[in-house]
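User: As part of a screening pipeline, I want to sanity-check one entry by hand. Below is the sequence and the SMILES for acetyl coenzyme *A. Please return the complex as structure tokens so I can compare it with the automated output.
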Amino acid sequence: MSNKSIYILGYSGHAYVILDSLAKLNVEVLGYFDFEPCNTFDNFYDLEYKGNEKLVDLNFIDDSSYVFPSIGDNGIREKLIQFIEENELTQTSIIDPKAIVSDKAIIESSVYIAPGAIINSLALIKKGSIINSGATVEHECVIGEFSHIAPNSVLTGNVIIGKNTLVGANATIVPGVKVGNNVIVGAGSVVTKDIPDNSKWVGNSLRM
Ligand SMILES: CC(=O)SCCNC(=O)CCNC(=O)[C@H](O)C(C)(C)COP(=O)(O)OP(=O)(O)OC[C@H]1O[C@@H](n2cnc3c(N)ncnc32)[C@H](O)[C@@H]1OP(=O)(O)O
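Assistant: Here is the complex for your manual check:
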């Protein structure tokens, strides 16, 4: 991202991690939108409350500022990005300086890539996804829109993840597996077979 200023939508745990990245990137944060202002003692980053984005006039936001969805929940993040698009606000992706991203990877808009994440060659990270701390997305993987690859999970080569899917922390997915839309892969799971849409997969299938 260029050094524009930014507003964030949502101000809780996931936002705090993003705000650390923005500080390292020297991006000025002009304020946050949320249902209501946080308590003073919870305003850890001393941000100005700009209101509930659905209720305030957003005309004061011009092209010189980005608006970023800072919510970990996939469904809510999708709705926020729809809102950003409907209001023709300017999107960006945020890549923490401690992430490693191949020049040959494609990172779409409103994606967050956290510290320690690795995105290797020819990976495609679609709109609104999160690649969280220390996660590895190997060569030629595709991450669907509004999905979340949680901390330390490992997607080996050519894995395909659908839309609105959560790959839990420390999960491993073996090469070439396809995970559907609206799937939850439990933390620590090992996935060796394709997973259909709208399902939950937990644990691993150990056998000799
Ligand atoms: C920075 C961040 O914090 S990013 C956050 C990223 N989030 C994650 O990684 C969380 C991923 N979520 C999980 O792994 C959750 O445990 C879920 C979604 C799989 C839980 O699903 P639920 O349907 O609510 O399952 P529930 O908690 O009722 O457990 C059902 C059973 O599965 C077991 N189970 C739950 N999760 C797991 C898991 N990851 N691995 C193995 N077993 C599990 C439970 O122990 C329980 O077993 P039991 O019936 O023998 O008692």
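Points to compare against the pipeline: Residues 74-86 form the longest helix (13 residues). Helices lie at 13-24, 74-86.
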